[in-house]
Write a structure and sequence with these properties.
The protein is mainly alpha-helical. It contains three helices and two strands; from the N terminus they run αααββ.
C-alpha cells in the first residue's frame, strides 16, 4: 500500500529482495479477530487509511517535494523484505 501512495505522488519505489536470515520467520499473519471476539475492540482507522496518513506525515516531516518524477530529497529506510 505504501508503494501505491508513493507512486501516485510521483516517487519511484525500489525494493531489493535479500536472502532470508537464519532468524527470519517465513510469514507474519496479523489477525485481530481474537482481540475483537474477546474484548469487542475494533480499529478506529482502516489499515489502508492509516498507511495513507503515515505517508502524508512522513512527507511533511522530511520536506519531500517532487519535481517531475525526481524527489528533491531521499528517504533512507531499511530494506523491505518481500517474499519470493
Amino acid at each position: 500500500m505504501l508503494r501505491e501512495f508513493a507512486e501516485r505522488d510521483g516517487y519511484a519505489v525500489r525494493t531489493k529482495t535479500l536472502p532470508p536470515r537464519r532468524f527470519d520467520v517465513e510469514a507474519n499473519v496479523l489477525d485481530s479477530s481474537r482481540l475483537r471476539n474477546d474484548t469487542g475492540w475494533s480499529p478506529e482507522i482502516a489499515l489502508k487509511e492509516g498507511i495513507q496518513r503515515m505517508w502524508k506525515v512522513a512527507k511533511k516531516q522530511v520536506g519531500l517535494r517532487v519535481a517531475g518524477n525526481v524527489a528533491s530529497e531521499v528517504l533512507e529506510a531499511p530494506v523491505l523484505r518481500l517474499p519470493r
